[in-house]
Design brief:
- The complex is a heterodimer.
- Chain A has 26 helices and no strands.
- Chain A is an all-alpha fold.
- Chain A is elongated.
- Chain A starts with a helix and ends in a 5-residue tail after the last helix.
- Chain B is about 90% helix and about 0% strand.
- In chain B, α2 runs antiparallel to α3.
- Chain B is rod-shaped, with a radius of gyration of 20 Å.
- The chains are: A mainly alpha, B mainly alpha.
- The interface between A and B is medium-sized, with 14 and 15 residues.
C-alpha cells in the first residue's frame, strides 16, 4: 500500500526536479553514484573478507564493552553498518552470539559509521578526490575479472570506493554551481524551530535515500560549499541518525524476532542519542569548538567540525545507553516472543545472510543440528525409548531391557510436522546459498545436503523398524524379543556415542570414536553373523519372524550407518581429518 | 644454473597443488605425532584394564588408532 502510492509519486517528483534544475541533477547523480559505491563496497567485503569478518564478530562479542569495540572497528573498516547488522542478525539467529553482544555491536557500529563523515570531510571535500576515483575504478574492474573470489572482492571494494569518491565529487560540483543561482543559506533557521525543521529534514532525506552515510556526505558537501549554515548542518546530521533507524525498522518488519529485537534496540539507542543531541545542541557545539581548537581543526572548517560532532554525540549515546544493555535485552526478549509453530520450520536460516558464504554455512550447520535433534527424538520413540533414559549412560543393555513399554507414536504424522518442512527449508537454503561460494564451501554445502537426506532416510527406516518392535516387544517369544532388543541397543548406543562425539572438541579423538563405532555396528547383519540360521535350526523363531529380523536388521544397520555419516559431517570440524573418515577401515 | 633447473624452480613456485600437498603432509605429520601419543596412552590403559570387556574395547580402539596413524603416514 505504502509503496504503491508513494513510490510512483516519489519517482514523478524526482523526474520533475531533474527536469527543471540542472544542478539538482548533478547532486542527485552524485547521491546515486555514492549509493552504488556503498553497494559495491558491501558486496566486495562479503567476498574479500572470506569469512574473517564473521569469525572476528563471533569471537569478540562475549561481553558488552568488547562487543561495542568490535562493532566500532568492524564498521569503521568496512564502512557499512548495514553489513555488520546483517551478520549480527544471522549470528543471533544461529545462536552464535548473545543478544547483549549483538546489541553491543550495534552500539559500536553507530560510532564506527561516523568515520564516513571523517573520510568525506578530510578527503572528499578538500582534495580533488574524483581524480583518485578513476584509477580505483580501473583497477577495481580489472580485479573483478579475476577467477579468485578474494580478488573479485577486492575489485568490488575498489570499484565501490571509486564510485563513493566520484559521487562526492559530483555532489560538491552540484552544490558549487547551485550556489551561483540559488543560495540555500538564505533558508537558514535559528532557534528550536530551526532544530525541529532541520532534524526532520535530515530524517526524511535519510528515509528517502536509505543511507545515513549518503545523507551525511550530502550535508558535509553542502556545508563545505557554504550552502547550509553550520548549526543547521548539525541538526541535519542528528536527523540522519534518527532517519536511519526508520529504514532499519521498516527492513526488520519482515525479519524474524531477532531482526526485530535488534532493530528496536537500534531505534531506542538512536532516539535517546538524538534527544540528547537536540536538547544539548548548543552545549555540544561549544564542546566541538573547544575540542576542534585543541586538535587543530580550523575555526571555519565546518565539515570537519560536523564530523567531530557526529562522533561526539554517538559516543555520548553509547556512554548513556550501554550501562542499561542487560535491561534493554530483557525488555526486547519480552517484546518479541517466538510463537510455537504447529509445523516445525527452520529456526536459523535467515535469507538476509544467504549471500554471505560463511554465515550461510554456520546457519546450515545449526539447522542440521536442529533436524538431527528432531530425528534423534523420533528414532528413540520409535524404538520405545526416551532419550533421557540412555543419554550419557554406560549400561545401555540394562536400559533397553527395562524399557519394554511401547511408546505408540505415529512416525508418519511426526515426520509431516517435525521433519518434512524443515528438510525442505534446508534443501532450499543450501541450494540458494551457493551463489557466492568457492569450491570448498560448495563442497561443504553438498555434504550438508547429503547429511540432511541421510537423517530423513534414517527416520523412514525407523518407521519400518517400529512396526515389528511394537509387535515383538510385547509378544511371547523371548528369542525374537532378545534379537529386537539387540537392534534397539545397537541404535541407541550409536545415538549415545554420537552425543559424546558432539561434545568432543578434539577432532582426532572424534574420528577415532567414529571409526570405532563403524566397527561396532558391523555385527548387526544377522544373516552374516549366522544368528538367524541358529534361531531357525533350533526352532526358537518362526520363519515369518526370521524374515522380519532379516529385513529389520538391515534397516537398523542402515540407520546406524547413516547416523554415523551425519555425525562425521556435522561434528568433525577439521576438513582434513573429516576426509580421513572412511579410509581407515 | 641450468635452464631446466630454473624452469623447475619457476614451475614449483607457481604450482599451487604442490604447495597444498606439502601443507597437507605437514598437517598429517602433526596429527600422526598426536596420534602416536594417544596410542601410547591407550596401550598403558590396556595393561591396567581390569575387566575383559574393557580390555576388548581398548584393544579395538587401539587397532583403529593404529590404522589411522598408518593412513596419516601415507599422506
Amino acid at each position: 500500500m505504502y509503496r504503491r502510492i508513494f513510490y510512483p509519486l516519489f519517482l514523478l517528483a524526482l523526474g520533475y526536479l531533474l527536469l527543471i534544475n540542472n544542478d539538482a541533477k548533478t547532486i542527485v547523480a552524485g547521491i546515486a553514484i555514492f549509493l552504488i559505491g556503498m553497494v559495491f563496497m558491501e558486496d566486495g567485503f562479503k567476498l574479500f573478507s572470506g569469512g574473517m569478518l564473521e569469525k572476528v564478530l563471533e569471537k569478540s562479542t562475549n561481553n558488552v564493552p568488547k562487543a561495542i569495540g568490535t562493532g566500532f572497528i568492524a564498521t569503521a573498516i568496512v564502512q557499512s553498518s548495514s553489513l555488520i547488522s546483517i551478520i549480527v542478525i544471522s549470528f543471533l539467529s544461529a545462536e552464535l552470539i548473545s543478544l547483549a553482544g549483538a546489541v553491543g555491536v550495534v552500539f559500536g557500529s553507530n560510532i564506527g559509521t561516523t568515520t564516513t563523515a571523517w573520510i568525506v570531510s578530510a578527503f572528499g571535500v578538500k582534495i580533488k578526490i574524483a581524480h583518485y576515483a578513476m584509477p580505483m575504478l580501473i583497477f577495481g574492474v580489472v580485479f573483478r575479472f579475476s577467477s579468485k573470489k578474494s580478488l573479485q572482492g577486492l575489485g568490488n571494494v575498489l570499484v565501490g570506493l571509486g564510485f563513493v569518491f566520484l559521487g562526492i565529487g559530483y555532489m560538491k560540483e552540484g552544490f558549487e554551481t547551485l550556489k551561483e543561482g540559488l543560495d540555500l543559506g538564505a533558508y537558514a533557521m535559528e532557534g528550536y524551530l530551526g532544530v525541529l525543521v532541520y532534524v526532520l529534514l535530515g530524517a526524511i532525506a535519510t528515509v528517502v535515500i536509505q543511507s545515513s552515510s549518503a545523507t551525511v556526505a550530502l550535508i558535509i558537501t553542502a556545508l563545505a560549499t557554504g550552502q547550509i549554515g553550520y548549526i543547521n548542518g548539525l541538526e541535519l546530521a542528528i536527523g540522519a541518525n534518527i532517519g536511519t533507524t526508520v529504514t532499519a525498522v521498516i527492513g526488520a518488519m519482515t525479519s524474524n524476532s531477532n531482526g526485530k529485537r535488534l532493530a528496536v534496540a537500534h531505534f531506542i539507542f538512536n532516539m535517546i542519542t538524538g534527544a540528547i543531541a537536540i536538547i544539548f545542541l548548543y552545549q555540544l557545539a561549544t564542546i566541538v569548538d573547544t575540542l576542534s581548537a585543541s586538535i587543530g581543526i580550523g575555526e571555519k572548517d565546518y565539515a570537519m567540525k560536523l564530523a567531530l560532532f557526529h562522533t561526539i554525540f554517538n559516543v555520548i549515546g553509547v556512554l548513556v545507553v550501554s550501562p542499561f544493555t542487560h535491561r534493554l535485552v530483557k525488555f526486547l526478549k519480552g517484546l518479541f516472543i517466538e510463537e510455537e509453530a504447529k509445523v516445525d520450520r527452520a529456526k536459523y536460516l535467515d535469507d538476509i545472510v544467504i549471500t554471505m558464504p560463511e554465515s550461510a554455512l554456520a546457519s546450515l550447520q545449526k539447522e542440521l543440528e536442529h533436524l538431527y535433534d528432531n530425528a534423534a527424538r523420533i528414532l528413540s520413540h520409535a524404538l520405545s525409548l526416551h532419550r533421557d533414559d540412555y543419554l550419557g549412560k554406560e549400561n545401555i543393555n540394562e536400559v533397553v531391557k527395562k524399557s519394554d513399554k511401547i511408546i505408540n507414536i505415529n512416525v508418519n504424522e511426526i515426520y509431516e510436522t517435525d521433519v518434512k518442512e524443515l528438510y525442505g527449508d534446508i534443501v532450499r537454503y543450501a541450494t540458494l546459498s551457493q551463489e557466492n561460494m568457492n569450491e570448498e564451501q560448495m563442497r561443504r554445502v553438498y555434504y550438508y545436503k547429503v547429511a540432511s537426506k541421510d537423517i530423513v532416510e534414517a527416520i523412514k527406516d525407523a518407521r519400518e523398524l517400529q512396526k515389528n518392535i511394537n509387535k515383538y516387544l510385547i509378544g511371547e517369544n523371548e528369542a525374537v524379543k532378545k534379537e529386537y532388543n539387540f537392534l534397539r541397543e545397537k541404535i541407541v548406543t550409536v545415538l549415545n556415542k554420537i552425543n559424546n562425539i558432539r561434545n568432543q572438541e578434539d577432532d582426532l579423538e572424534s574420528l577415532t570414536k567414529i571409526e570405532f563405532l563403524k566397527k561396532e555396528i558391523e555385527d548387526m547383519d544377522m544373516v552374516e553373523s549366522g544368528v538367524i540360521d541358529k534361531l531357525i535350526r533350533t526352532n526358537a523363531i518362526t520363519t515369518k519372524m526370521a524374515t522380519s529380523l532379516i529385513n529389520d536388521s538391515s534397516f537398523a544397520y542402515d540407520i546406524s550407518k547413516r547416523l554415523i555419516e551425519v555425525a562425521t559431517t556435522l561434528w568433525i570440524a577439521d576438513k582434513d581429518i573429516r576426509e580421513l573418515s572412511g579410509e581407515v577401515l | 644454473m641450468k635452464i631446466k633447473e630454473i624452469y623447475e624452480k619457476i614451475s614449483d613456485f607457481f604450482d599451487q597443488s604442490k604447495k597444498k600437498q606439502a601443507k597437507r603432509k605437514d598437517k598429517a605429520e602433526k596429527l600422526e605425532k598426536k596420534l602416536v601419543k594417544k596410542i601410547a596412552k591407550t596401550k598403558a590403559k590396556l595393561k591396567t584394564a581390569q575387566t575383559k570387556k574393557k580390555k576388548k574395547v581398548l584393544a579395538q580402539e587401539l587397532e583403529v588408532m593404529k590404522k589411522l596413524a598408518k593412513k596419516l603416514s601415507e599422506v
